[in-house]
Amino acid sequence: MTVDALASFIDHTLLRPDATAVQIGKLCAEAREHRFKAVCVNRFWVETAWRHLRGSDVTVCAVAGFPLGATSSTVKAFEATEAVSAGAGEVDMVIALGPLLEGRYDIVARDIADVVRAVNGRTVKVILETGLLTDDQKVTACRLCAEAGAHFVKTSTGFVPGGATVEDVALMRRAVGDALGVKASGGIRTREQAEAMIRAGATRIGTSSSVAIVSG
Asked: 76, 125, 138, 183: which is the annotated catalytic residue?
């Protein structure tokens, strides 16, 4: 895979709570230089990122319900709507993990669907937090995401143990087929890891090590 091709898979990410405007500016400059697919930032920084990236092909991605997924669907939908109004073209939301583990699938599906409706056609990626799920629960979560109208399933927030694995990416790809994208995120720091995820079925890579990945 060429460097340019690899870069087109990458969401260049800065979700640290201590991120500053200077760091967001650097993130966006790097995304422009290397032609990454998107930058992924917390809601507070969406407008700042949008201003830095205006006129480029790099998309601004915001997170909703991050990192716990434990807010109400109303709050997640509002957060997503605000992010879109500030310039986000994509939203990565965290699944309602507790209800998923309890088998309350109607709540999980409604939570996702509310965000999908709120962003009015923008891309929604649903973070499953695969490190906390069994394989059966991962497959069920993928099904719920597809039924609720999401566009991607995503492995992890990177804030709990257990990031992306090749096995999980392959499982998620089998679960969604060609209907949804699969985003591998959490602990991906080398080109070899990124390319392994893509071979397993990932169509997007979320990482804060993007520059190291494409530059070696």
From this structure: 183
